Amino acid sequence: MKKCPECRVEYKDDSMSECPVCHAHLETVGNSASRYAGDHENETEPAYSTKSLSIDEKENKRRIKIAEREKNKNKILLSGLLIIIVVSTTILTAYLNSPGYKARKFIEQGDLLGAAQLYSERGMKNKAGEIWLSLGKTAKREKQYEKAIGYFKNAGDYPGAEDEIKECNYLIACGKVAVKDFASARTMFRNMGDYRDSGKKYMRIAFRGIKKGSVVQFGTYQQKTDSDTYGPEPIEWIVLAIKANKALLLSRYALEYRQYNSEKEAVTWEDCSMRDWLNDEFYNTAFNETEKKYISLSYSVTPGNAKYKTYGGKPVQDQVFLLSFEEAKQYLPTPANRLCKPTEYAAKRNVDINQRGTCPWWLRTPGAPSVAQEPGNAVDSAMFVDILGTVIVEGCFVNSSDQNGNVGDLGTARPAIWVLINY
User: Fold this and answer.
1) What pTM was computed for the model?
2) CB atoms within 10 A of CB 389
3) Which residues lie below 8 Å from residue 311, measured CB to CB, with a gap of 6+?
4) For residue 179, is pLDDT > 70?
5) Is residue 180 helix, strand or coil?
6) Which residues are registered as beta bridge partners of 378?
7) 69: exposed, middle or buried (Cβ count in 10 Å: 0-12, 13-18, 19+)
8) E strand or H helix at 366, and its extent?
9) How far apart are CA 116 and CA 100, in angstroms?
């Protein structure tokens, strides 16, 4: 008889050498040959042996089933263990490849830039913004303002980033003043609007060393025809007069081709389309909110045409205006003083220019009456300065047309303003 040392199952077949359940080597537990050989060869097997054998077979079958269950249980446990190992490995690999883990490794190594870039690439805005802001503040403390601005811009709309950019630009502009780069400083302070004392600093630079006859830059307007390449540029102004804390400025160049009035009709400065354009579209285009605070509201009195006895209209208040005949004579006493060139932008918009590049420009004073109009009333003409600097007292039709009604190219806008210089 054979017995499995592992399963403890006994087998009657002496020819078996391996357990069919666990495949262990079987051991011999009795010599069945000697039991039936020799003197006992002719003896009959005891009556209980068949029953005993039946019991042994049942026991063996029971033990085989138990062994098989244990084997299956072990297989299930092994499969579960393998699943746990695979899942754990997958989770660990995912964690090690996660941006959070990689970013923490960057931070542990002191590479904040690498961490910020990683968070940005993965779209983790808040975490990226926090690090970009920290990097920017460090660069700002080291006075690397341009570098700091780059970091703050990378932070996007993270709280505090926008204010930090303004602060860096302010500090850069102050540095420009220190090295006497006034042009760059003026532009930067202008663009910062009301941030800190940028407005006052801008005005100090804009009117630095101001005196009668000097040229200052204030506001911006389109002056090149290629607006895609050249945007609005600083407007140059001639200082005509300084009175107390104010200065009267006249644009150095004609900025725009404009009719005095869009229709050929009897009209005064009070009601003409030129005045509407200057105090609305031009005013809001040329000046930002900071500059507007320094433009003084002026009281425009327009005397009538003394030669032709025409009506000048009621006094009005203006932010921007045209010079009157009297003001042109007072502040620009000679034809040479009154010569004016248009900007490239204005020149391309239907302006009459002579060989020297000068152009005519409007005054706000009325011209001579036409045949159908009586002296003392509003007229359909206005004075202007011609291309030689001469004031044409009889004027031109307000819509720049000739006697036949053909609209010509006469007339440009040369704005004037009073500004506060006591800051």
Assistant:
1) 0.66
2) 16
3) 268, 304, 366, 376, 377, 378, 379
4) yes
5) coil
6) none
7) exposed
8) strand 361-366
9) 11
| Of residues 153, 175, 174, 176, the one with CA closest to residue 165 | 153
pLDDT of residue 348: 83
What's residue 339's pLDDT? 96
Q: Which of 129, 203, 127 is nearest to 159 (CA)?
A: 129
Q: Which amino acid is at 181?
A: D
pLDDT digits (tens, 9 = 90+) for 224-246: 988 778 889 999 999 999 998 89
Residue pointed to by tokens 């320094």 = 294
Q: Which two tokens stand for residue 27?
A: 């051991």
Query: What digits encode the pLDDT tens for the residues 277-296?
Result: 999 999 999 999 889 999 99
Q: Diameter of the chain by CA atoms?
A: 171
- How far lies 348's CA from each of 29, 362, 413, in Å? 121, 18, 14
State how far the Cα of 372 lies from the Cα of 374, in Å rounded to an integer: 7
pLDDT at 402 over 90: no
Residue for token digits 């970091």? Answer: 151
Q: Alpha-carbon distance 182 to 342, whole Å? A: 26
210-220: buried (b, 16+ CB within 10 Å) or exposed (e) per residue? beeeeebbbbb
Residue 403 scores a pLDDT above 80: no
Alpha carbon 354 to chain centroid, angstroms = 44
CA separation for the pair 298, 417 (Å, rounded): 8
CA–CA separation, 412 and 281 (whole Å)? 15
Q: Is 418 exposed, middle or buried (0-12, 13-18, 19+ CB in 10 A)?
A: buried
CB 177 within 8 A of CB 201: yes
Q: Which residues contact 180 (CB under 8 A, 6 or more apart)?
A: none
The whole-angstrom separation of Cα 69 and Cα 48 is: 32
Quick one: how many helices (H) and strands (E) in the chain? 15, 15
Residue 306 sits at φ, ψ, to 5 deg, of -65, -35
CA neighbours within 13 Å on the CB side: how many for 89?
6
What digits encode the pLDDT tens for the residues 17-34? Answer: 787 767 777 788 765 444
- Chain-centroid distance of CA 382 in Å reads 46
